[in-house]
Write a structure and sequence with these properties.
The chain is of the alpha/beta class and 345 residues long. The protein contains ten helices and 14 strands. Strands 2-1-4-5-6-7 form a six-stranded antiparallel beta sheet, covered by helices on one side. It has a five-stranded parallel beta sheet with strand order 8-12-13-3-14, with helices on both faces. A three-stranded antiparallel beta sheet has the order 9-10-11. It binds adenosine-5'-triphosphate (ATP) and magnesium ion. Adenosine-5'-triphosphate binds next to helix 1.
Length: 345
């Protein structure tokens, strides 16, 4: 997928602004100039969500009551499309493709991008939720049908929570039984995604010339084992009125080069997270969804050597890339030979 053009209206600090993108684009500008805002607008237009806030209202420019972003993309072959995302202060949101309303599911099924941000260090050393989200995205990259399995499972969680809250134990057994194949499928797909990520991570590390490896550990039980765990927790779940077991609670752990991620340095974690995003990018490319790779100011924790290696890796990607930096083009590790977007104060 190639992003050709992006329009922002009343999005954060911008009243109205447009950008054209090349195969490699560098967005540079001082603090507060709007670099992250552009990366965020890409995510809003291509994924229907912001990575900075769960509440899109925060993205509406102060004083305005409606924001709008539009991305024009080349989807490969002869297919081009324009995707828009509009939202207001009342919480109304509208996504369109070529002028026709679409669901978020249809949007994320049609586009392909990977966002790499400073917050990704949380993916390695933060709570398991970030790692679950990462692995789920990778699983969806391997098989777009995963999104249906994941949403069916979410429906199960909602229904079961409602039953537990209202102490309606009668339906629980039946509901649990119906969830066994779903839980098994999620574990199975997550396992395959983790394998593919590990293999690509090793490829990236070799390319970077670094002795780096990653281990990803997660619950793997399927079928009868799942049935047993669901059964074993029924009494406690009923007492507490909430779910105590399932893939939405799975503890996914990561080890960087044989050490718990928590014990690694900030620069090591930042580089590890960056390699994970590159691994995700390669996975999407292999799966036939060549993604747009967006890196928002990710080099902060890295020393000069790691920054250089990271920039070389981005430069070698056979996909469209957008990189933001507060450093001017050509300075430090920032390449000068690309489409430049220079933002002012
Ligand atoms: N809803 C909003 N309305 C108006 N301005 C906003 C809104 N939300 C954020 N801003 C402002 O937009 C500016 C740009 O923020 P952004 O995070 O995109 O900058 P940046 O170039 O990424 O900076 P840095 O180099 O510090 O990361 C900030 O000054 C911020 O205060
Ligand atoms: Mg920023």
């Amino acid at each position: 997928m190639h992003l050709e053009h992006l329009l922002l209206r009343n999005f954060r600090k911008f009243d109205e602004i447009e950008f054209s993108f090349g195969g490699r684009t560098l967005i540079s500008g001082p603090n507060g100039s709007g670099k992250t805002t552009i990366a965020e607008a890409c995510a809003a237009a291509l994924g229907g969500k912001s990575f900075r806030t769960a509440d899109l209202k925060e993205c509406i420019r102060e004083g305005a009551d409606h924001a709008f972003v539009k991305a024009t993309v080349d989807l490969g072959g002869l297919e081009r499309a324009s995707f828009t995302s509009g939202f207001d202060r009342k919480g109304q949101k509208k996504l369109t493709r070529d002028g026709l309303t679409i669901s978020r599911r249809a949007l994320i099924g049609a586009t392909s991008f990977v966002l790499c941000t400073q917050e990704d260090i949380e993916m390695v050393s933060g709570s398991p939720k970030r790692r679950r989200d990462f692995i789920d995205r990778a699983a969806m990259g391997l098989d777009r049908g995963y999104i249906d399995i994941a949403s069916q499972y979410l429906r199960f969680v909602k229904q079961k929570t409602a039953l537990l809250r209202h102490e309606r134990k009668s339906g629980l057994k039946h509901l649990n039984e119906a969830a066994v194949p779903l839980i098994s499928a999620i574990r199975n797909r997550r396992g395959a995604a983790a394998q593919a990520i590990i293999a690509n991570f090793e490829k990236v590390a070799r390319q970077a010339g670094l002795e780096l490896s990653i281990a990803i550990r997660m619950p793997a039980e399927e079928g009868d084992e799942v049935r047993k765990r669901l059964h074993d927790r029924m009494v406690r779940e009923a007492e507490r009125g909430c779910l105590l077991y399932g893939p939405h609670l799975d503890d996914i752990q990561m080890e960087l080069t044989g050490r718990a991620a928590k014990s690694s340095s900030s620069g090591e974690v930042a580089f590890g997270a960056f390699c994970l995003r590159l691994a995700e990018t390669l996975l999407l490319g292999d799966a036939g969804w060549p993604p747009l790779f967006i890196a928002d100011e990710i080099f902060s924790f890295m020393d000069r050597d790691r920054r250089d290696r990271a920039m070389t890796l981005v430069g070698a990607l056979p996909f469209q890339t957008v990189v933001t930096s507060h450093r001017p083009a050509g300075e430090g590790s920032v390449p000068g030979d690309c489409t430049l977007i220079s933002l002012g104060e």
